[in-house]
Every structure is written in C-alpha cells, then in structure tokens.
Design brief:
Elements lengths: L12 E2 L2 E2 L39 H18 L7 H16 L6 H28 L3 H18 L3 H15 L5
Antiparallel strand pairs: 1-2
Helix pairs in contact: 2-3, 4-5
Bound molecules: zinc ion.
C-alpha cells in the first residue's frame, strides 16, 4: 500500500503551535514557504520593494560568489592542457574496441575516424606547446643582451665572467 505523502505546512510559530496551513496557502507560491497569514505574501528578493539593486545587495553578493567559485575552479585548469581530454578519448576508444568481438565495416570506419580525431587533438596540443615555448634562438638573444647589460654595469672582466657563468649555470643556458 502506498503511504500518504504529508503536504509541507506553513509551520510559522503561533500561539497554538506551528501553523498547519498548507505551505504557501493562498499565496502565489502554493506548496512552498509561509501561508498568506504568516508572511507568505511578502515579496522577497528582486520582487520586494526593499530589494536593493547594486553590488552590495545580498543577492548580488551571493551571485558574484558563486561565479567566483566557478572561475576559481576553471583558473586552476590550464586551457592549453588537453591531456585529460586526450586520455579520455583514448580510454573510450579502447573501451569500445574491447566491447566488440567481431568488428563490422561500419565499426572499423567509425574507429578510423575516431583515431584520426585523437591524433588531431594530440597534434594541436603539441603545436600549442611549441608556440608558447621559448626557442633556442630567443634564449641565445637574451643571453647576448644580458652580457651587454652586465658589461655596462660591472667593470671588472673577471667579475663579469663569473656573474654570467653563475647566472647561466643556474638557469641551465649555455651563455657562450
Ligand atoms: Zn501559516
């Protein structure tokens, strides 16, 4: 036998205990919140005449906080790092192959396109990595500029050499 579902009640504290009207009774939000006798007709949030527009409103602050949380989560994820997505695609592909005993021509066609998609993703990832990495030529240029600057500020050639050798060794660059 099915159990009767108790409707939610208003529940406002009255002299005779909690109000037993159905929640939201005679309000536009029947089934939720206080009944019409106990504050259920008082507009809340953006509908309220007391609602404060602007940055300091409680609602605005809550909204900004939830957006900030989402942005924080996204910020931790390097947008160029698609390794996770790539691994997921590979795993799905392997899973698909494992589940198939005899592959049909259509399956093979699908797998070929899928594998192509994966290698395209890998290619794109490698390209993005290379675009953001500093080239050997750029490092050489920086090293040469550094030597010029050091020469202008350190008079003693031995000190110059020692400074540069120490610097280049510490960042793993051949400064010669
Ligand atoms: Zn009530």
């Amino acid at each position: 036998m099915q159990e009767a579902i108790e409707p939610a009640t208003c529940g406002a504290h009255t002299q005779n205990g909690p109000c037993r009207n159905v929640a939201g009774f005679r309000t536009p939000h029947y089934g939720q919140g206080r009944c019409y006798l106990h504050g259920g007709m008082t507009p809340r949030g953006p509908d309220s005449p007391h609602f404060r527009h602007g940055r300091r409103s409680r609602y605005a602050i809550a909204l900004r906080e939830s957006l900030r949380d989402k942005l924080d989560t996204l910020a931790e994820h390097d947008p160029f790092d698609v390794i996770d997505e790539l691994q997921l695609q590979r795993a799905l592909l392997l899973d698909f192959v494992d589940g198939k005993d005899g592959l049909t021509a259509a399956d093979r066609e699908l797998l070929m396109r899928w594998a192509e998609q994966i290698s395209k993703t890998a290619e794109r990832m490698t390209r993005m990595r290379n675009e953001t990495a500093m080239t050997a030529a750029e490092l050489k240029l920086i090293a040469a500029r550094l030597a010029d600057v050091v020469a202008r500020h350190i008079a003693d050639p031995e000190q110059q050499a020692a400074f540069l050798a120490d610097l280049f060794a510490s960042i793993g660059v051949d400064g010669r």
